[in-house]
Design a protein that fits this description.
heterodimer, A: 432 residues, alpha+beta, Sulfite Oxidase, Chain A, domain 2, Immunoglobulin-like, five-stranded mixed beta sheet, B: 140 residues, mainly alpha, Cytochrome Bc1 Complex, Chain D, domain 2, 2% strand
């Protein structure tokens, strides 16, 4: 009897073991599936283009590529080189040199600069043309530093609807660095600007295959001599305390705080005083925006030739939601720090507001360190999603001139001046 | 019940239990995805350059990638003429664009930028772009 009982017990134990094994296997399988569902991006490649609707991703969709002096960045085109900065770099107010976006217009980009022969020329309508060496810039002028955002005119072009031709940037054609160099006006004073000068033209080492005199030969940009932006402009020989990466304009580039990057001519060699307005292709018709509020118009108005176009200038106020970026599922009840950055070409960002679709309304975020009126201003907001579900997070900024980011996009043929309120979808899961 | 039968039953039950556990664990591990072959590429690290203390500041050659244009009539023209001044990847980077926009782009290359494209080749390039890169026609 005793024997029989122990036999019975042993058998149930074994059965139990078998059942337990099955249950273990099942639970293991279930856990595996849950894990797999959170990681689809690891094995799935993005399509190489978006459209005809707007690009739904924060960045553009190109592959990652490594270039000299650069961390892996998002490749738009290889000749000329156009690289976009991945989203996470914007958690910091200063963008590292090796992650800074790259945008050239012509294929002939210098790989090499010999500083024994390189000169910065100040010429044209001046009393005393200058030929300055790199050492002259270092030693003959008082160094000045400022932190400023450099943003491509076409940043976020892929948000346009209907889509427009051009570099299909996501939001990463921007960066913020501490630029050190010489006051632009000091160079002009040294050369002695002649009466009758109206504009100052910048040209660098960038060259194309086109015939001389064509826009495909050289990239040239001009600003009015009376433009107050030139009072704050510098010719920078250092970026974040280091030489500029070749792809960002070594040995010097122009810094025009508050203005779009098109004027920040790279590998600058020539500052030319003009006695009449610059009408070269890169000033007209390129880089022009409608002379309307926010620079917006319609395809119909453009087709009917009814739109007055003016050179692009200052950057409208923008804010960006960097983290969470939607790649991670958030357990309900977990406190999350929502983080991002902001900018304005019209003066410092003074307010950033956060909204989530469950609560609605705008809630003031905490601003990060103030690096000056033209720098990135980071922000953060402590947010705890209480219930599982899909949330839409939104962010908007206000600058010191009272400009508030609107919830409407813009449309213009160049794909410029995008500053609509940005949104991010995040999924919150069960925690128990 | 004989001792031998009991032993056999015990052995079989144990074996089944162990097998179920093992199969379950192996199946689970295969499913978990740690070792799934992925189709994303790896990016090799560049070696540090060697410099001399002279006035020359040099970086390595910028990499060039093969454009991936859809096969079809006119592809040769697009690849060759566009490639004179810029990578034909400018085409594949664009969203699907209307035929009129493509025509305007090709015209701009000639008129604004001075590209020397024979009329016949221009027409073939425009036709090629219409056939493969408009909202109605773009597949990849």
């Amino acid at each position: 009897m005793q024997k029989h009982l122990s036999d019975y017990t042993r058998r149930s134990l074994l059965k139990l073991l078998g059942a337990g094994g099955g249950a273990f296997a099942l639970s293991h399988f279930a856990a595996a599936n849950a894990f797999a569902q959170q990681q689809p991006a690891a094995a799935k490649r993005l399509s190489p283009f978006t459209g005809p609707g707007a690009n739904p991703y924060w960045n553009s969709v190109g592959p990652m590529a490594t270039y000299p002096q650069k961390a892996p960045l998002i490749l738009l085109t290889d000749r000329p080189v156009q690289l976009e900065t991945p989203r996470h770099y914007f958690l910091d107010p200063i963008t590292p040199n090796d992650a800074f976006f790259v945008r050239w217009h012509l294929e002939g980009i210098p790989n090499e600069v010999d500083l024994t022969s390189w000169r910065l020329h100040v010429e044209g309508n001046v009393n005393k043309p200058l030929e300055l060496t790199f050492a002259d810039l270092l030693h003959k002028f008082k160094p000045v530093s400022l932190v400023a955002v450099n943003q491509c005119s076409g940043n976020s072009r892929s948000r346009f609807e209907p889509r427009v031709a051009g570099g299909q940037w996501g939001d990463g054609a921007m960066g913020c660095a501490r630029w050190t160099g010489v006051h632009f006006r000091e160079l002009l004073e040294m050369a002695g600007v002649k009466n009758g000068s109206v504009q100052v033209q910048m040209q660098g080492l960038e060259r194309g295959k086109g015939p001389k005199g064509m826009p495909s030969y050289a990239f040239k940009k001009s600003l009015d001599l009376s433009n107050p932006a030139l009072d704050e402009s510098i010719v920078a020989y250092a970026m974040n305390g280091e030489p500029l990466p070749m792809l960002n304009g070594f040995p010097v580039r122009l810094i025009v705080p508050g203005y779009f990057a098109t004027y920040w001519v790279k590998c600058l060699t020539t500052v030319r005083l003009l006695d009449k307005r610059d009408e070269n292709f890169w000033m007209n018709p390129a880089y022009r925006v409608p002379d309307t509020p926010r620079g917006t118009t319609t395809p119909a108005a453009v087709a009917a030739d009814k739109v007055k176009m003016i050179p692009i200038a200052r950057m409208p106020v923008r804010s960006f939601l960097i983290s969470p970026d939607g790649a991670t599922k958030i357990p309900a009840g977990l406190p999350v720090t929502v983080r991002g950055t902001s900018l304005s070409g019209f003066g410092r960002v003074v307010k950033v507001e956060f909204s989530d679709s469950a609560r609605g309304g705008w809630h003031e975020a905490t601003l990060g360190e103030d690096f000056g009126p033209y720098a990135f201003r980071t922000w953060q907001y402590a947010w705890t999603p209480e219930k599982p579900g899909t949330y839409i997070l939104a962010v908007r900024a206000t600058d010191e001139k009272g400009n508030v980011q609107p919830d409407e996009g813009v449309w213009n043929p160049g794909g410029y001046l995008w500053n609509k309120i940005e949104r991010q979808e995040v999924v919150v899961g069960e925690a128990a | 019940m004989s001792g031998a039968t009991k032993k056999r039953r015990t052995f079989i039950a144990l074996l089944i239990g162990v097998c179920v556990v093992a199969v379950g664990a192996i199946y689970g591990d295969l499913q978990i995805g740690y070792y799934t072959p992925v189709n994303l590429g790896r990016v090799a690290q560049p070696a540090a350059p060697k410099f001399r203390p002279d006035g020359v500041y040099r970086v390595a050659a910028y990499p060039l990638y093969q454009p991936n244009l859809v096969p079809g009539v006119g592809r040769q023209d697009a690849a060759a003429y566009c490639n004179t001044c810029h990578t034909p990847s400018y085409i594949t980077m664009q969203p699907p664009l209307p035929a009129a926009t493509w025509k305007a782009e090709v015209d701009k290359m000639g008129k604004a930028f001075g590209a020397q494209i024979p009329t016949g080749a221009q027409a073939r390039i425009i036709k090629y772009l219409d056939t493969h890169y408009t909202p109605q026609t773009r597949k990849r």
